[in-house]
Design brief:
Layout: H1 2-25, H2 30-37, H3 44-57, H4 63-79, H5 83-99, H6 103-115, H7 125-141, H8 145-161, H9 166-185, H10 189-203, H11 209-225, H12 229-245, H13 249-265, H14 269-286, H15 289-305, H16 309-326, H17 329-345, H18 349-360, H19 369-385, H20 389-475, H21 478-532, H22 538-582, H23 588-598, H24 603-610, H25 614-627, H26 636-641
Helix pairs in contact: 1-9, 1-11, 2-3, 3-4, 3-5, 4-5, 5-6, 5-7, 6-7, 7-8, 7-9, 8-9, 8-20, 9-10, 9-11, 10-11, 11-12, 12-13, 13-14, 14-15, 15-16, 15-17, 16-17, 17-18, 17-19, 18-19, 19-20, 21-22, 23-25, 24-25
Length: 643
Amino acid sequence: MTKFLSFILLLFCATFQAQNDQIQTQEITVEDIKAQLENKTLSSKTRIDNLLILGFDYITKSKDSAYYYLENALSLSKVENDSFNIIRAYNRFSELEKYFEDDSKTLKYADSALQYASVTNQKHFPGIAYSYRNKGLAYNYLERFDLSLESFLSANRFLLKDTQDDETKTYLAENYTDLASIYASIDNNETALECIKKALAISIPINAYWEIGDSYEFMFAHYFQEKQYPLAQKYIDSAQTMYAKVNNLQGIQFLDKYRAEIYLKQDKPDLAIPIYDALLQLDKKDSIAYILTEGYTFLSKAYTKKNKFELAARYLDSARIQASISENLSHLISIASQQAKIYKNKRQLGRGIVELQKILANENIEFFQESKKDLYKQLSDLHTLNKDSKNALLSLNEYHRIKDSLRAILQKNKFNVIQSEFNYNELSAKLDAREAQLQVSKAEQQRARDNTYFTVVVLGLIVIFFIISFYRQKKLNPIKRENLIAKQEVLSIKQEALDAQVSFKNKQITDFAIHISEKNELLEKIKTKLKEVKVINDTHKTVVKDTIHFINNDIDQNKEKIQLYQQVKQTNDSFRAKIDQLYSNLNEKEKKVATMLRLGQPSKQIALQLGISAASVDNYRYNLRKKMEVPKGHSLKDFIKKI
């Protein structure tokens, strides 16, 4: 079970980031990206993206090249103070070390990524989740299931916070499958199956065939461990169907190997051998030592089942040659165990005992307690057949000692996992409460700042008003006041005539406003009728929508005109009297422009209302400044508003 689960976790990990970068690289080649990097005018953002893509591409090709590109991407991201890409770079380093099975460095780089992450920045959430995922996988390989569980739960926490698009749902499905593997490793199969159900519930609606296949592959491993081989075969078929949809040839081949394993467990070597033999021919093309070792060892087991010991021995010799290249102790253990089985079937019990004792003497066997337990059981059986009851009992006692030790470790792991779940839930509750408090605190601080700014602005305006009023009063000397009184008497007669004219103009404005209001009512009725029209044709729908939009704009403009005319009417009664009294040298057009400026209208709006060009408005503004003797450096609009 552990062997299958380890492979599943590694396969998830390898595809997780590959799917993320596939979109970026599907239209251009690696050589194209390298050529782009030669362009010195390339933006920093694009350069960082390209370096990260190259770094990931070289993970499976050249560790030195991958390190070179990722280091450049990280350095440039730090220069740009780009926390998002710093997180990406450290996560790629973590992926690199994970591929080369250096779990301590995998954890180190994942922690480095998390140091630059902000738990309040939604843009960082996918990167944070990916860092925790890498930590979860690394802790799983180190058999720290409590920390692995905690890491995967943290990853899910940030994925659930992120926008729930198909990509995020895909990562959630993968994480639930990983959580299932953790629970399965501590024999908590009920919870493991619940996690797989969640993974399938997420991945099936979005047609995430790869993730669906991974879930079915887990189900196969579960029923294989339970020795329910028909169900295991059923899920192999389901997983292969999903992998075929995404052209996952490697996954299909591994499932074929698992199918052969089932046939061997069912004592059907004649069905298992053709499958594995065909796959072995494909594996020879890649010449990967550890894969060839497993293939030759399997065929040796199969031929042993058929009592073809010479052929089984030859395959085992081939496996031994490949194992010397891969230098993997687990393979040496499998070879020694198989060799002992061959000797047992050939009744060469002494040689089988020596073979097992030799592998048990390896100083690194302590790291493979499960295998060591099985070897002692096998050794006890050989001693029993060899009628050596003393050594048989010693080997059996060692077998039970290791078995009890593993059971104690399993119970400890179960307790640690339960404790981790409790700690995680408690911490999550505290973090959620803290986030809520922070949001309330930020809102209160913002409200306080807004109130302070408003108070300061109001006080400032009051102070400015009193200062301006003081200086205006100070500048008005008695002589000017007498002159103003005299002018007022002279202008009073003119004012009566102007008042009559203004009254007439105001009546015209009122009539025009009424006309616009009636027009608006008519437009509203037309708009209502248009909305009641049932249009099926999409083109006609667009025409109706555009017409309604045009009517709304016209109504809004008419309302603005009504408001303007009302403002003009209110202003004319007082301001025009003052401006006629103080500046009799202004012509009618200049007075209208001055009135518009007092109302706060921009030049463009004045030009529209008076039916003149913007350039003409600028000329009138110049004449007003000159005739009204506006001091240099003062705003004409502010000067007029003070009249």
